[in-house]
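Try this one yourself first.
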């Protein structure tokens, strides 16, 4: 392992397995693929980098694994700077998107590979391989070739290979993106329970917000190489800090407005139609400022009759789609023809919606967030 970080600006935080300190990455010496990222992965945590394609997720993971150099900043693993430690000495397990199994080696030989590299004694190898096979529920398939396995089984082998040498932490870059939906959901569950049972730290990469929400303890939302927000799934969903996070996580209705009055917990805005909307100020600071008001489809009520719904409007039902456990209505309201409202079957049974009809809808100021304008 490397030297203890000697730079006085590098503070080791005791419960962290990984620290990114002012990490930047440039491939061409000009543009930055990763911009000044700071984060700690706590011991035993499942932390996910989530972002659109090109946002810098893989670059962050590759610098941590040691396959890409760090342009600026420090990466600490267990409190020690690893910027210049080669990958195979970092004690990090890695699972890639495209399995990357050796096609001419058996399952057992694939899983044994990291042990060979680390010069593990022959007698120990078989035992460790069997144990890893059991962890991913592939006992009995040790002598198969990778191409004789399904996609899900191949990815399990890749996971076993990453776990077999008892790494401090395991990194996964879009490991499930090649699998179909039902297998992907099954593997999400398996990876989660492996994480819980082994008490290992995981840094995971995905562009799929649903996957990130179900798997992670915390999520770092990346955009253009920077972290937009780092928080638990529930916090990201309920309290997005800005419009990028709000539109990337879950579903939101957006209404452009202008601030007329602003206090700590409440602001009054008007829309382009002139309609007033009360909201919670989040990424706004002053009167006259343009804002995007965001409100989730499940926060909207039909025929609100109480004053707790400060925002009440007439809406026309444009379209109704049955989703089994709920109904989704597309409505036209306040100049937005694509306003989505999620309605429970029970509410719809009591007063059924009809396409073309006008109805009253409403939402609370506390469920409506005044965010920044999208770039
Ligand atoms: P993500 O994994 O989120 O899709 P990447 O980290 O792969 O994002 O890429 C971030 C940016 O860095 C992109 O603009 C990409 O084109 C660039 N990039 C990634 N890898 C390389 C490379 N090896 N050489 C040059 N540019 C790269
Ligand atoms: Mg990537």
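Now uncover the answer:
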């Amino acid at each position: 392992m490397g030297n203890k970080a000697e730079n006085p600006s590098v503070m080791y935080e005791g419960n962290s397995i990984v620290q990114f300190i002012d990490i930047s990455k440039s491939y061409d010496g000009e543009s930055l693929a990763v911009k000044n990222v700071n984060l700690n992965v706590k011991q035993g945590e499942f932390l996910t980098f989530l972002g659109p394609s090109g946002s810098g997720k893989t670059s962050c993971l590759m610098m941590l694994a040691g396959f890409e150099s760090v342009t600026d900043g420090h990466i600490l693993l267990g409190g020690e700077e690893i910027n210049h430690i080669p990958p195979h000495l970092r004690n990090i397990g890695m699972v890639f998107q495209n399995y990357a199994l050796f096609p001419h080696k058996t399952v057992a030989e694939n899983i044994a590979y990291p042990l060979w590299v680390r010069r593990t004694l022959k007698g120990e190898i078989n035992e460790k391989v069997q144990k890893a096979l059991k962890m991913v529920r592939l006992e009995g398939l040790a002598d198969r070739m990778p191409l004789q396995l399904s996609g899900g089984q191949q990815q399990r082998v890749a996971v076993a290979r990453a776990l077999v040498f008892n790494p401090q932490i395991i990194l996964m870059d879009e490991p499930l993106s090649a699998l179909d939906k039902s297998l992907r959901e099954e593997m999400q569950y398996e990876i989660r329970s492996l994480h819980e049972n082994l008490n290992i730290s995981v840094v995971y990469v995905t562009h799929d917000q649903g996957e990130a929400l179900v798997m992670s303890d915390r999520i770092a939302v990346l955009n253009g190489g920077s972290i937009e927000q780092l928080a638990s799934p529930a916090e990201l969903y309920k309290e997005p800090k800005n419009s990028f996070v709000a539109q990337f996580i879950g579903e939101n209705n957006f209404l452009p407005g202008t601030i007329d009055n602003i206090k700590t917990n409440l602001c009054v805005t008007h829309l382009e139609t002139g309609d007033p909307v009360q909201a919670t100020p989040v990424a706004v600071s002053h009167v006259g400022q343009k804002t995007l008001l965001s409100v989730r489809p499940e926060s909207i009520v039909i025929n609100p009759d109480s004053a707790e719904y400060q925002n009440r409007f007439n809406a026309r039902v444009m379209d109704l789609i049955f989703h089994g456990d709920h109904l989704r209505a597309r409505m036209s309201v306040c100049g937005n023809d694509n306003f989505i409202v999620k309605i429970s079957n029970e509410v719809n049974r009591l007063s059924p919606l009809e396409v073309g009809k006008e109805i009253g809808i409403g939402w609370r100021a506390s469920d409506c967030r005044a965010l920044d304008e999208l770039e």
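Discussion: The CA atoms of residues 265 and 280 lie 6 Å apart. The mean pLDDT is 93.
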